[in-house]
Structure formats: C-alpha cells, structure tokens
Write a structure and sequence with these properties.
L-fucose Isomerase, Chain A, domain 3, 2 domains, six-stranded antiparallel beta barrel, five-stranded parallel β-sheet, 37% helix, globular
Length: 492
C-alpha cells in the first residue's frame, strides 16, 4: 500500500550488570535468527554495538538504531535488565516501543545461567509508568526465541499505525452536510495524537477542479478506470469528469501535505456537490482508498482517521460504511437461518453509496446514486461504484472524539456473509456475534455516529493494542452473553 510507513524495528538487548551479559547476547542472536527464518528480515534491525547495561550504552544504542533508520523499537530483556537505562531508552526513542523478555530455555540454565527476565519485566513496567512512557507489552511478554519473534511480528502492524499517525495530515473539504451532526467532532484530540488537519471549503475544491479542465493526464486516468470497471462501465460519459476530479485530489495532496508524509481525506459529496461538479465522487473515493489514501464521506474527519488506522494495521484497502439497515425477516429465514451460526439480531447491512474499492466487491458496476436521484436529475448523480461486498472476515471499528473532546473507540470482529443483498450501493450482509447487544450498549449508549470503518480480515487484536497505546480507556467491543454491559438490564 502507498501512503503508509514501512516499519523497521530496532532490536536492542539489555542486561543487568550482575547477570551474565552473554545471556543477552546469545538470546538476542537466537531471537533475530528465529525472526528471519519465519518473517520478513527487513522488518527488523539487530543493534550489534552493545548490550545496554548503562546510560552510556543506552545513548550508543539509541544513536545506532537511529542511524540504521529504525522507526520502531523492541527492548529485549535477555536477562533481568537494567530498569533505569532500558526505560530511558524507550523514553528517548522517537517512535513506538515494545518490551518483551526471554524465557529460561531448559533445566540446565537454572543453576548458573538463569536470566530472571520474568522478574525484570515487572520492574520495567513499573519504571515505564514512573516516567510516563507508553510501550506495547504483549499479553504474555515472556517467551523463547520463536515466541518472542511472533510477538515482534505482532507489533509490526501496531507500530505501522502509530508511526503513520505521527506523520498524518487529514485534509477536509466541508462543511459537513446539514443533519450530519454525528460526523462533526472536536479536532482537539487530533492534535494530541500528532495528527495535523487542514480544513478547506468545497468552493476551494471546486476552483481547483475547474483549473484541471483539459488536463493532459485525463485520458490516461480514464483508460485506467475503463480497465478497472470492465463490463461494469455503465456510465462511460462521466469518466472524464471523474478523472479530472481524481487528478485534482492527488495534486491537492502533493501541494498541501506540507511537513507530513501521509494523508487522509474527509470529503463532501452533497447536497450541492453533484449539482455543481456534475457527478458524485464515490468511485474516485474508492480508487484513492484502494491505494492507501482513505477518503471518508460527509466530511467525517474521525471516519477518515479510523480508515487510516485500519489501512496501516491491515496493510490493505479499507472502507467506511453506514451501520445501515436491518436484514428483513424473510431474507434472514431464507438465506441465513440454519445456514450460519447467527441469530436475527446478529446480522445487519453495511452500506454506502459507492465508495468501496473494487477489489473488495464481488462484482461492480458504475451507476447513479439512487437516493440523490429521487430529487435530482439522474445525470448529475452518476459516479457510484455499486456491488455486493466480498464475503469474508472483517473488523468493524471506529476511533471517535466525543462532543466534550474525550477519545474513545469500539472494535468488533465479524464477517460479510455470502448472501445476495438484493439492494444498491456498496453493500453487504454483515454478521457480528451479539451484534444486537453491541448495537444497543456500545453504539447507541456510547453516542457513536452511524459511520463505521471496515478493515478486511480479523484485526481486532492489533487495533485494540493501538487504541490502548493511544491512551483510550473506553474501548467498546461485542461482549459474549456471559459478560453483561454496565447498562444492560439484567431482568430483560
């Protein structure tokens, strides 16, 4: 994917001076070999110059991994570890950090070569708290070489999201449409996350679009659209305008990203957009999102932020959908009941007008926006990419600022069922265990807007760790029946 960081994790082994340094050396070497044997060797860098026992060693290691281009750090406790210098290393490193520790290999180590990293991890965590330093610590952070290699690989998508947010700019074109208060939220938390925002008028965008009229690159973009759409190219007459708009957005990004490396867009598509531009932008939104440049609808800034996090975590295209409508009883009885392990309230339909990347649709066609066409000429509503979303695992999630600028989020793993929607837009039949209770006691109770980000695959574990690292204390999830929500009526 474009527009997301490539992670290189510096592995720095630490040692307490009253423990054998050789333990950290040999265990670090075994860890690196285990990682290289199983995962992409370019993900990691082994800091070779020293085993960190002191503050001087810490400075040497910090300089080395910086020179090597590392943008994430793994502090590896080969033995008990020096709680001061190892946590100072985490404090002074400018990027996401994780800690893990070595398990004892065999009975033979217990006499003279016991490392006690199991104990050292406790002191490390205590000192991180004292210093106010954030770090990712796996659920069970002590393991042999192969297990620690797995932990580090699990850190890669987390680090990618955290590093991406530090260098992200969200470009919005607004204001939000009338009656979409739910998509409006304070931007204070964006700055706390290190995310920059550039807010523009849609008139600014319209001016830039008009300046791209006759752009010599338009025919090549049209040809690429035609290739992507294939037999689904039902509205060829609108492709030149869509290509002009795509070039407008891409050029705006390059001209306006400023000091940041990565960009997400919170765009607008109605009510005046289609009458003035002469089309709807859904298909262009889908194409940019497919390249790793998420574009949210209805100027949903936190929707764009959520999509970007999902892109980094999944290393794949995402989408933004309305948590839209219930599944009719006859559809449930005919296509879901007794065929899938979901009750009637576990399923719903996720929909948006036509913003989902073509690679995530079972089949797609360029069409008009049916809802808008109820009150406007069809020809100004062309530009949606319609099709049923491809069946498979998904993660529904959102990071959101509340009206009083508190950051919170929700995450739920689920799936898109292989059930024909018999509807319009980019749409799918979604299934999430205990969705009915989750809908009532997280989404409604938590005052979340109707937009949810969708990552393709089960990424709840990594997203949860990203949210924790960002400091969220309120992370909603779909609880099993045995775990009631605080607001759930026990007599219902």
């Amino acid at each position: 994917m474009d527009n997301i960081p490539k992670i290189k994790i510096g592995i720095v082994a630490v040692s307490r001076d009253c423990f054998p340094e050789s333990l950290s050396v040999t265990r670090r070497d075994a860890l690196v070999k285990a990682y290289q044997a199983k995962y992409d060797a370019e993900d990691i860098y082994e800091c070779p110059i020293c085993i960190v026992e002191s503050e001087i060693h810490m400075k040497q290691a910090l300089a080395d991994i910086k020179e090597a281009g590392c943008n994430a750090l793994c502090v590896y406790l080969g033995n008990f570890g020096p709680e001061i210098s190892e946590t100072m290393l985490a404090q002074q490193f400018d990027g996401p950090v994780m800690f893990c520790a070595a398990a004892e290999e065999n009975i033979g180590t217990l006499s003279d070569d016991r490392g006690d990293a199991y104990c050292g991890m406790l002191n490390a965590s205590y000192n991180l708290k004292l210093r106010g330093v954030k770090a990712y610590i796996p659920e069970y952070p002590v393991g042999d070489a192969e297990e620690c290699a797995d932990m580090i690989n699990g850190f890669v998508p987390i680090a990618r999201a955290l590093a991406g947010l530090k260098d992200l700019k969200i470009i919005s074109f607004g204001p939000r449409p009338l009656n979409f208060l739910a998509c409006n939220a304070p931007i204070y938390q964006l700055y706390k996350l290190g995310v920059e925002i550039e807010e523009n008028s849609e008139l600014d965008l319209f001016e830039a679009f008009n300046k791209h009229a006759g752009d010599e690159r338009i025919p090549a973009v049209v040809a690429d659209m035609e290739k992507e759409l294939g037999e689904g190219n039902m509205k060829p007459e609108v492709l030149p305008k869509l290509a002009q708009y795509e070039l407008t957005l891409l050029d705006w990004i390059e001209a306006h990203k400023g000091s940041k490396k990565y960009v997400a867009i919170a765009g607008k598509c109605w009510p005046a957009f289609q009458t003035q531009f002469g089309f709807v932008p859904c298909y262009v939104n889908s194409r940019l999102t497919g390249r790793g440049i998420p574009v949210s609808c209805e100027v949903d800034v936190y929707g764009a932020l959520s999509e970007y996090i999902g892109t980094c975590v999944s290393n794949d295209a995402v989408t933004l959908l309305d948590i839209n409508n219930s599944v009719p009883k006859d559809m449930y009885n005919e296509s879901i009941k007794d065929k899938f392990p979901y009750g009637e309230h576990d399923v719903f339909m996720g929909f948006h007008c036509g913003n989902t990347c073509s690679t995530k649709l079972s089949a797609c066609s360029m069409k008009y926006q049916k809802i808008m066409a109820r009150s406007l000429p069809i020809e100004v509503t062309n530009g949606t990419l319609e099709g049923d979303i491809m069946p498979g695992d998904i993660t529904f999630f959102r990071l959101q600022s509340t009206s009083d600028a508190q950051l919170r989020g929700y995450i739920a793993n689920g799936e898109v069922l292989p059930v024909a929607t018999q509807s319009f837009g980019s749409i799918g039949v979604f299934a999430i265990n205990e969705m009915g209770r989750f809908y009532r006691h997280v989404l409604i109770e938590g005052n979340y807007p109707h937009h949810g980000a969708v990552a393709f695959g089960h990424h709840g574990k990594a997203l949860f760790e990203v949210f924790k690292y960002l400091g969220l204390t309120d992370i909603g999830y779909n609880r099993p029946k045995s775990v009631p929500y605080p607001t759930e009526n026990p007599f219902a």
